[in-house]
Amino acid sequence: QVQLVESGGGLVQPGGSLRLSCAASGSIFSIYAMGWYRQAPGKQRELVAAISATSSTNYADSVKDRFTISRDNAKNTMYLQMNSLKPEDTAVYYCNAKRFYSHYLSAPSSGIWGQGTQVTVSS
Q: Contact 76/23 with Cβ under 8 angstroms?
């Protein structure tokens, strides 16, 4: 069983950058698809980005060209580099692992979840 721990959240000014990390414990991290979700107050949780076991990626339209998802299987860690941050990016960001990449479309609530890390973009 994979367990996930996020880090790297915090307060940043508009236009700034943050890098989130998701460290996975347990075996066979490399065969899981991974993703980042976020949930802002009063809003539904949404998929931000996902990466397959072979490093294919997918992004929400709202973050394309600003965020980059990546993974380092040797370190059992996934990252989300967030640039040009906007106030509307403020949310709790959750790391997620799914056995199959297709489940990011077909079964969004499935898989293993981290505890979340707060990202606040404000001046």
A: yes
